[in-house]
Structure formats: C-alpha cells, structure tokens
From TrEMBL:
Gene Ontology MF: a single term: Rab GDP-dissociation inhibitor activity
UniProt-annotated location(s): Cytoplasm; Golgi apparatus, trans-Golgi network; Membrane
The organism of origin for this protein: Saimiri boliviensis boliviensis (Bolivian squirrel monkey)
Topology of the protein relative to the lipid bilayer: Peripheral membrane protein
Subunit structure: Interacts with RHOH. Interacts with the GDP-bound inactive forms of RAB3A, RAB3B, RAB3C, RAB5A, RAB5B, RAB5C, RAB8A, RAB8B, RAB10, RAB12, RAB35, and RAB43; binds RAB3D to a lesser extent. Interacts with DZIP1; this interaction negatively regulates the interaction of GDI2 with GDP-bound RAB8A.
Annotated protein name in UniProt: Rab GDP dissociation inhibitor
GO cellular component: Golgi apparatus; membrane
Record-level GO BP terms: negative regulation of protein localization; protein transport; small GTPase-mediated signal transduction; vesicle-mediated transport
Keyword annotations from UniProtKB, A to Z: Acetylation, Cytoplasm, Golgi apparatus, GTPase activation, Membrane, Phosphoprotein
Domain of life: Eukaryota
One Pfam assignment: GDI
Family affiliation: Belongs to the Rab GDI family.
Function field: GDP-dissociation inhibitor preventing the GDP to GTP exchange of most Rab proteins. By keeping these small GTPases in their inactive GDP-bound form regulates intracellular membrane trafficking. Negatively regulates protein transport to the cilium and ciliogenesis through the inhibition of RAB8A. Regulates the GDP/GTP exchange reaction of most RAB proteins by inhibiting the dissociation of GDP from them, and the subsequent binding of GTP.
Amino acid sequence: MNEEYDVIVLGTGLTECILSGIMSVNGKKVLHMDRNPYYGGESASITPLEDLYKRFKIPGSPPESMGRGRDWNVDLIPKFLMANGLMGLFEKRRFRKFLVYVANFDEKDPRTFEGIDPMKTTMREVYKKFDLGQDVIDFTGHALALYRTDDYLDQPCCETINRIKLYSESLARYGKSPYLYPLYGLGELPQGFARLSAIYGGTYMLNKPIEEIIVQNGKVIGVKSEGEIARCKQLICDPSYVKDRVEKVGQVIRVICILSHPIKNTNDANSCQIIIPQNQVNRKSDIYVCMISSAHNVAAQGKYIAIVSTTVETKEPEKEIRPALELLEPIEQKFISISDLLVPKDLGTESQIFISRTYDATTHFETTCDDIKNIYKRMTGSEFDFEEMKRKKNDIYGED
C-alpha cells in the first residue's frame, strides 16, 4: 500500500463509488478503501432480514410469515433514479396547455418563450399565466420538479421548467414511470461503479481500518492504515471519516415499514413514490414515501417495503410522519432511525479533501447527483461531461 495515488477515496456510498469510477475512467490512479466489509456505507442494502432486526435492536427473530430472511434486501436509504437524467396527462385543459408549453420550451430559442423571460419571470408568475390551481401547483412543484420547499416559486422559472422537462422525458422513456430501481436493492449500484473503477485500474480494499488522514501545511498528503501510508494528491470521503471538517445542518427521520399489501389507492402498484407537499400538512418540508416489493427482489413473495422520510422540524419527529404512516396501515413491523444531516465546512480546494453530504430525506437521487457534480467541479475545475465519459468508455469497449 506504500504507493502514491492521484486520488484516495474513503467510504463506499454511492457518491464515493461514482466519483471513484469517474476518476478512474479519466485516467487517475485511484485507491478506494472502506472500514466496512460491505459496499454502500450509509445507504447499504441489508440482508438477510435477521440482520435488519439486529441493526435496529428489535428483540426476537422475524416471524415465519415474512418468509426466508435471504429473500430480503432492505435499503436503509432507498432512492429512485430518473430514467432519463409525465405522468398521464390531466384532463384539465389549462394544465395540458402548461405541459405542452414545457415540452416545447428551449432556453436557447426565444421563439418558445411565449412572452415569458426564463431568467426574470418567476415560477409563481408562470403558474398564474396558465391559471393553475393550488393543488396542481403543489403537485407540479413537489412531485414533478422535485422541490422540497416552495422557495422556488419566487425564483426565475428556467430551472423549474427544465426540471419538469426532465420528468416528462424520463416518463416517455419507459411509459409508466419516470423512475428506475435496481433489482436486489441499491447496494448493487456502488458495486457496479466499483467494478467500473477496477476495470480502469482502480484498487479496492474493504474492511480496511483508517487510522489517520495525513495533512501537511494544510493540504492532504496521504492516508495511514494498519501502519502503512498511501500517499495521494486528492482525497474524497464521506463525513464519517472527517468529523472535524463537517457540520450538522439538521436531521432526517426514516421509518422502514414491512407490509403485506400494496399502498391503498395506488392501483395495487408493485412500486410507487408518494410526496406529501409541505403546505398540505402545515410543514416547512415535504414528507416522502417510497414503496418497493418482491417484484424488485428486495422482499419475500407477497411482501412490500415502504420507507417514510422527512426533515425533522420538531422535538417529536415520529409525530411529524404520521400522515404518511396512516397511508400504509396496517404495518407489520417498523424500523425507525434518526440521522444527522452533515455537510462539509469548506469547499476542499485548499486542503484537497472533498467531502460528500449525507443523504437527505428525498426519495430520488437528484440531490445526490448535484453533490457528485459539485465535488467533481471542485476537484477538476471543470463541469462533469457524461457524454465525454461515455466516449472514453466506448473508445475501449466499443458502443453499448
């Protein structure tokens, strides 16, 4: 291990594994280590079900009615991925007119603006122009554009319109939903990017204790593990490895619920995402529900996993998620966790230590993708170009 690397990565959460893969594809010499013996970090998939009971200190063993423990792969932090990054068109003419406008919108073509200045006109003014009601506004802003608060209403509308376009194009890709979810749980994703990194020369070490991050003159120079030092020019890590360099900005409550039935009023869907807009439950932030099932190889036959999450706003977080839990009744078993929201204290450009954010309450990966792109830009000074990454890959392996 006494070698010098361009980049050392600590932690195998999805953010860290994606950045490890990206840096390896870009020709960097990468060493990737984790103190845990498994992939996924904070967002790991837990199997068998008995391990979930132990993790949450639930007494006893899962009842026989829950099937074989090995049939379960329970994500601690489930998140859907956008298939391309609308739902069925509503009958209301005004909303349809708005969706047509969004579909035709091109921020580079003023002919598509229809009197709206995307850099000056607020989204509140756009909704007013199309005479949309409050329920439709709540749905559009929180379920389509995936905003967590209503602050966006008074911002220039360009970003919101592009977010809704992404949702529409993602839906068009597969027809029933704009989201994807991997079989056997999200733990498969970090492993996939780990394999990508390895293909391009990256070195992986699991179950590797990290004794010290070595900094000289304010800049990282290496990592010490089991008495050996690996030197590096840059370091990527999750907050758990650098607790003195992160700060708490809030908390998230998550409740994993095991069900024997699909959620009511969802047409017996095998999976779904429900977003309860914050102003409909007198809150500052939305409440999220993600449901998956045996169809995704994450639960025993006939069983469903629903995870409720939200940003904590009071001293009684369990009361805050009651509106969502009521949608899921009856619930066979609940697993409750409250975790801190941690963010880096600085950008990392001085120390060259680039720290990811902990996962927020959302049930989609859009905010995580933003963090990945932000870290990449801070490390390289340039925007991440996914098409360029695909070209590099295809240069070696040919077109997919």
